[in-house]
Amino acid sequence: MEVKGVQPPAWVRDAVFYQIFPDRFRNGDPGNDPPGVRPWGELPTPTSFFGGDLWGVLEKLDYLVDLGVTALYLTPIFKASTNHRYDGEDYFQVDPALGGNAALRALVAALHRRGLRLILDGVFNHCGQGHPFFRDARANPASPYRDWFVWEEEEEPGYACWAGCPSLPEWNHDHPDVQAYLLSVVRFWLEEYEIDGWRLDTVEYLPPDFVRAVYRTVKEVNPQAYVLGEVMGLGTPWFRHCALDGVMHYKLWEALVHFFAREEWDAPRFVRHLWHLWRSYPRWANFSSYTLLGSHDKPRFLTLCGGDGRRVLLAAAFLLAYPGAPAFYYGDEVGLEGGEDPDCRRCFPWERAEGHPLREALRALIALRKARPALRQGSLGFLYAQGRALALKRALPGEEVLFLANAGPAPTEIPLPPGRFREEQSGELRSGALRLPPYGFAFLTRAP
Ligand SMILES: [Ca+2]
Q1: Is residue 4 situated within a structural domain?
Q2: CA 224–ligand 1 middle distance (angstroms)
């Protein structure tokens, strides 16, 4: 299924994303902390602030580059009243508690100097009740912004709001001035701050014509900018609408949870499901989607694995062997745990970052993906699925890489295709079959 009018940026299929929840990654400037910040590392509540900011992200770029990250996704950074900032009050102002517009300017410059990219979270379904247009519209029926929102006099709270949450009034996208205003936001940060794309919040609840207009606006400014949609279901309609370059692949994430974390699915079921997802999207969309191990909206993968780091590494290795842009959620690489929101938004534990075995292993795997173009751009084949073991093949002309995984507690043997293969980790030559320890995996490259 080829869709005319969609041109995903070439860099995405080669990217390794890292998602940051800015209040919790690093406090680079205690001078801008909001009042009442909690001590770093205390467990978060729905309302606690910890003082993380964009200066902190800037301070830790070496750490991210060393890990192999090539692109950052930041959850909302515009002025708002909550710690998650999905309740924007000024779309043209980076929250002063995150360092303001100057910090974003400095961060983008530093990222681009190192060849890294940045995408921001665009919350265009709703704003915060503190947004001046909403305040004016609510206080004054003659307000010029009255029709920018949807009033429901007979129902509490009297206006359309996100998920029934009165603090998040929804924009009236049927009003052309609303669309023009939101599109000016899209354009502003691309043009004036040279961000590399947008992650669109709650895409499934936005009118398709508006999302298409966002897409066209982004590409007008920069055809190499990325338009990523937060989609919990299948993203197929959005690709047909020519409205997105890729989706946050939550359907794939769910499959990872069933297979690697909860061990509810056997390998044949997992592979059947992968194949179903693969065929549901245009080929290009499989390569330009964001294949996540975690996010701020889900329990930590380590927690879902009952604290078993082997399975986190195995799932991460799978994503690095699979098409798409693998995406890691801050702290997953150093064994950060956490249940449902807000527990999955804990402070980054810097005291254990240095030399953490999971991080060291992940760094090596990211380096391997960068060294083997077939892992990023090659065709996908499913070679084997039995019990809790599977094998995948990624191939380009002249390069063939196998990924073998044992997602079970017993050792298992996986047959290899005819020929000789070099095991990437050990350098050993293999043929016939390979025995994998519990929760073990291997990358093999076809040897001449
Ligand atoms: Ca701060």
Answers
A1: no
A2: 32
